[in-house]
């Protein structure tokens, strides 16, 4: 009887291990289960960098870029959708190996996580309702209602505006929709994403005003002292050198990248 129990639990253990390897049990945790798979977190409502496609699969510039970088390192990628403000905690807790999410490299974030070399130049822009004439800078938003995505550099910029009423949303499209609905006066968000939402007609009746508020660089985020940092940077350099980066840029932005 005891023998049988032992055998059974040994069997269960190896069966569970098998499922982990097959990637069927999410409870196994992300990082480090399978050496050939990188578990990568993303907040997938940020087109054209990441969004959910027609068949529920993730699509976007970041998604393609991450897969291409991983391939150079002989890895495959398994994506995990997470809230944007949950990505850094997940990296710190070790449940993901990396995060790609249009994430800006900031000094503040570098205190708790590491970043790859920059892979995209972006910056914040102010969006307002079409026809708005009194807003061209952050100062003009004093005392006004601003919508932002939680945990973002846009949220941080909005927090610096005197007397502004800032409302936070789980995703950038939700913040932009709030503007389209007339419930706020402005959205502070990454320019490429706001411009894409306007260009695709996804969010009607809004426009971008003024100059970029910031110059920001996106990086792939990794846990501090991750053993994968070097492979990620080598992969990035390789896809820039062999034309893959330019092809992906063209695919998602319709133009060649500006000289970097
Ligand atoms: N670049 C901004 C930041 O790092 C916004 C990124 C939001 N990304 C996303 N997938 N929702 O704070």
From TrEMBL:
PROSITE patterns: SBP_BACTERIAL_3. SUPFAM superfamilies: Periplasmic binding protein-like II (SSF53850). InterPro entries: Iontro_rcpt_C, SBP_3_CS, Solute-binding_3/MltF_N. Pfam families: SBP_bac_3. It is found in: Cell envelope. One of its GO terms (molecular function) is ligand-gated monoatomic ion channel activity. SMART domains: PBPb, PBPe. Residues 1-27 form the signal peptide. The keyword Signal applies. One of its GO terms (cellular component) is cell envelope. Residues 37-255 form the Ionotropic glutamate receptor C-terminal domain. Coiled coil: none annotated. Keywords: Signal. Residues 37-256 form the Solute-binding protein family 3/N-terminal domain. Belongs to the bacterial solute-binding protein 3 family. This is Arginine/lysine/histidine/glutamine transport system substrate-binding and permease protein. It comes from Phormidesmis priestleyi Ana.
